[in-house]
Amino acid sequence: MAGKIRARDIEEVKTRVNIADVIGEYVALRPASAGSLKGLCPFHDEKSPSFNVRPAQGFYHCFGCGEGGDVYKFIQQLDQLSFTEAVEKLAARVGFELSYEEGGASPEQGQKARLLEANNASAAFYQGQLMTDAAIPGREFLKGRGFDKAAADQFGIGFAPKGWNALFDHLTKLGFTIDELVAAGLVTKSDRGAYDKFRGRLIWPIRDTTGQVIGFGARKLFDDDQGPKYLNTSDTLVYHKSQVLYGIDLAKKDISKRQQVVVVEGYTDVMACHLAGVTTAVATCGTAFGDDHIRIINRMLSADKDVPAEVIFTFDPDAAGQKAAMRAFADSAKFTAQTFVAVGPDGLDPCDLRTAKGDEAVRAMIEFKKPLFEFAIKQKLSKFDLSTIEGRVAAARSAASVVAGIKDPAMRPAYTRELAGWVNLDGNDVAALVEAAGKADRSRAVVDMRKDSGPHGEPRQDVPPEDEPEGLVFGYIDLNDPITRFERQTLEVIVQLPHTVTHDQLLKICEAGMSAPAHNEILRAIKSSAAEQNSATWLNTIASNTSPLVHQVLREIAAQTLPAADEDGLSRYGLGVTARAITNALAREKNDLLAQLRRVEPGSPESAEVQRKLMAVESDRRALQ
Question: What are phi and psi of 214, to 5 degrees?
Fold first, then answer.
């Protein structure tokens, strides 16, 4: 097996890759300040952007959860790749040919790469089988739903032959092993050998955002098939159904462009929407819509309130569809977008609607969407007899909990008034029911919160850490303290705008020191790195001279958005902070000298030396004024 990738190639690939372009495929980024971009963090749930990308420095940092690193780390975490796989993926992106130690030949592909190769080969095999005589039932199924050959080609639809090992035989001839095919979820292994998982079924390839086939969805076609109506790939190293949205590879560009996501219930619904011109449609793959799906969608939508984003759900009118709708309402606050429901005429889903009434009807269904709040409230009301006072009061009481759950303070009273009109009750009475429901919800929330609180009810995550890691002890940094806060500002300028600090000023600030131990540790590293002050490796050099215990603090300093809109503004800001830092350093030096003067004998040589230093400090201070 060949050796590891040469270090110089790793650095070369990183310099050729624009980290903002890479991260921009996963996160909607917008300008924050000169040289900085912001978006919603892909590593934790948030509604206000705290994820910061610095393209010039080649790193990212989240001020919310502390995650940060370079483009390799980002790809490793988001695509669940090893470091080598991340380098190889980015090298392929920019067309750079890597060289390896111990001979220079390409290394064997990692297991994930082999699974992707097997999936892509399987997709090609299945697609080729769709035009065989054995696949006539599959083609008839597609035709009956309004999909022609061009549509099948666009979505890569294929057919799995009824035989036990047609795919297995094909892939083993291509060099794949039984263990690889089992790991990919393509083959099942038994005492008698191996057999295909999908047999006699119509096949939809499921792709990730980069277009790689990571799994399959299969619909049964024959009456003698005893399996479920739809069968999906089981979770593998590259396929996790709770983190996958079918159609995301086709929809991602228009989702970002239009700031819209349409969530439908099945593969044929995604096809119908896209063919009808609703090119932002996606669907889950054999699982309920959950938090991981919400995170995927939030990453692709902007957090900018001036660019309204919308998530539109389509649900079947049956009981399962209604239950799914109420689940979506419960999660609506997790979206960085307004949420809606689109219901087709006569309860038709997008696929059936397109077959019955054409593309325009599908577009109209999405256009005439209703707010999810309204839909959820009316679902509650539908369970009561509104012809009686008792029924109207009971309906209002039931729907009040939905209204109380609306987070927007402007929306809540508006829907309170709407609810009063729908049940024909006095608005004040309905408002009282909503207030009571809100108090009950808050009481339950307090009980739940106390389970995860400190001894006095405080949230644990907001408490300074009690136990420091072994080794250097840096303590909790209180940025509400004005002294500590200015120390942080000074470090931000030194790290991000080193050209606004002269070498002598840098040494003066370093000699004065800082009060927060973590800041002092970074300041010592800056002093050790002073020779690289104006080089492109300034940040990396500082990091190499600091303890790993403060690397997160250093990332926060390097990623912090500075209060300036352009390069001139940044320079003025940097010069101003530097001047104040030097003034503070001189004041601290003066106080130290005065204390020293009080300790020495008046008239002694030591006293004269201290006084000489005091005069020099005072001269420097006046020069700054």
Answer: -110, -15
Q: Is 272 exposed, middle or buried (0-12, 13-18, 19+ CB in 10 A)?
A: buried
CATH code of the domain covering residue 84: 3.90.580.10
How open is the CA angle 351-121-23, to the nearest 5 degrees? 75
At 121-151, the pLDDT tens digits run 999 999 999 999 999 999 999 999 999 999 9
Considering the domain architecture, whether residues 264 and 372 belong to the same structural domain is answered as: yes
Measured CA to CA, the distance from residue 357 to residue 221 in angstroms comes to: 25
**Nearest C-alpha neighbor of 542 from the set 73, 87, 57:** 57
The kind and range of the H/E element at 220 are strand 213-220
Report how far apart, in Å, the C-alpha atoms of 62 and of each of 53, 76, 487, 521, 525 are.
Answer: 9, 16, 20, 22, 23
Same domain, 553 and 598: yes
**Quick check: 158 and 198 in contact, CB under 8 A?**
no
User: What integer pLDDT is reported at residue 442 of this predicted model?
Assistant: 62
Any idea what the CATH number is for the domain that residue 324 is in?
3.40.1360.10
Q: What is the total residue count of the chain?
A: 625
Taking only the tens place, the pLDDT of each residue in 2-58 is: 457 888 889 889 988 999 989 988 888 888 877 789 988 888 878 788 899 988 888
Q: Is the pLDDT of residue 321 over 80?
A: no
Please give the structure tokens belonging to residue 223.
């009456």
Q: List the single range of 11-20, 366-375, 462-471, 472-481 with lowest mean pLDDT.
A: 462-471
- pLDDT bucket at 595, cuts 50 / 70 / 90: low
- 474 domain residue, yes or no: no
Which residue range(s) make up the domain with 47?
7-94
- pTM exceeding the 0.70 threshold for the entire prediction: no
The verdict on 374 and 411 lying in the same domain is: no
Q: Which of 239, 258, 288 is the last residue of a domain?
A: 239
Identify the pLDDT of residue 132.
96
Residue type, 339: T
- Mark whether 517 and 596 lie in a shared domain: yes
Mean pLDDT of 544-549: 85
User: What is the tally of structural domains in the chain?
Assistant: 5
Backbone angles phi, psi at 162, to 5 degrees: -70, -20
Tens digits of per-residue pLDDT, 421-455? 998 888 899 999 999 888 876 665 444 444 444 44
Question: How far is the C-alpha of 379 from the C-alpha of 186, rounded, in Å?
Answer: 42
Strands 51-54 and 59-62, by their bridges, are: antiparallel
Task: Give the range with max mean pLDDT: 21-30, 107-116, 121-130, 608-617.
Answer: 121-130
Yes or no: say if 299 and 28 are a contact pair by the CB < 8 Å rule.
yes
Using N-to-C axis directions, what is the helix angle for 71-79 and 83-94, rounded to 10°? 110
- Pull the structure tokens for residue 482: 């004005």
- Tell me, yes or no, whether 123 and 179 share the same domain: yes
Distance (Å, rounded) from C-alpha 512 to C-alpha 586?
8
On whether both 368 and 501 belong to a single domain, the answer is: no
Q: Which two three-digit tokens encode residue 434?
A: 């909503």
How many CB atoms are located within 10 Å of the residue 105 CB?
11
> Is the separation of the CB atoms in 54 and 74 below 8 Å?
no
> Sign of the CA dihedral 375, 377, 379, 384?
negative
C-alpha distance from residue 230 to each of 25, 216, 266 (Å): 30, 10, 10
**374 and 436 share one domain:** no
| Eight-state DSSP code of residue 164 | S
